[in-house]
Amino acid sequence: MRIVGFERDGAAHLGLIDGDTVIDLQAVDAKAPADLAEWLRAGKGDLKPIAELAKGAPASARLPMTGLKHTLPVARPGKILCLGLNYMDHVTEGRYADNVPKWPSLFFRTLASFVPHEAALLRPRASTHFDYECEMVAVVGKTARHLTMDNALDCIAGYSVANDGSVRDFQKHTSQWTMGKNFDKSGSIGPSFVSADELPRGGKGLKIMTRLNGKTLQSDNTDNLMFPLAETLVYVTQGITLEPGDVILTGTPSGVGQAQKPEPVWMRAGDTCEIEVEGIGVLCNPIIDEV
Length: 291
Hints:
Blueprint: E1 2-8, E2 11-18, E3 21-24, H1 25-28, H2 36-43, H3 48-55, E4 62-64, E5 69-71, E6 80-84, H4 88-92, E7 105-108, E8 114-115, E9 121-123, E10 130-131, E11 134-140, E12 156-163, E13 166-167, H5 168-171, E14 187-195, E15 207-212, E16 215-221, H6 229-236, E17 247-249, E18 272-277, E19 281-289
Parallel strand pairs: 6-17, 8-14, 9-19
Antiparallel strand pairs: 1-2, 1-5, 1-14, 2-3, 3-4, 6-7, 10-13, 11-12, 11-17, 12-14, 15-16, 15-18, 18-19
């Protein structure tokens, strides 16, 4: 199942993708939730009610995917939890080469720091060191605490794609990454949500890459996560309760802009950045300057 958030007539909508069309759930039932998190909470992670509602869709509820104005796959996630330093080659290309993490490196991002598919990423006035990071995203479907390796992945409803856009000089100002990872409209998530049953368990074995202006700068496989999703969930839920609609960014591979040779490659106004995760989709965003 593939689900997309979009805007129609100035209002938030949620749709089920069917080929090259999307079934507008609010056009089927005006009372249907427009935020995927609400469906996940109501169904305890079960997405069958969405499929059932879509079965009764009239022809007028079908819209072409072309020209859709995307919104975030989860409109208002309760938490946006991110992993840093989760591919060894990325660790060794940067300043942590002599300090390989023994535990998942976790940080949070704010909702305001993300835009959806095809919306512009904002290079800030304060910095030219605007970097890209391709990441696989996991979306939590059920409330989870004290998970084990046997049941950890049962709480994941599905997956998406993210660009964990980073303002590198601000990220390095202190040992805490919050500022460099949370500039307004510096990252993106999309284009859609893909249910877990359509992908390998835990999102393993998927090709992941970044293309900037058509040139591939990052290319790896989610098999190479240092802390795979199941292990990360077990670690996190020792202390943090995960809830339906929470979003987890699983880390970026090597090839980030700051590590490019002979000189760093930063995102600039006029650029287009594409993030692709096999089986999930291609997230595309133009870059503009903050005015």
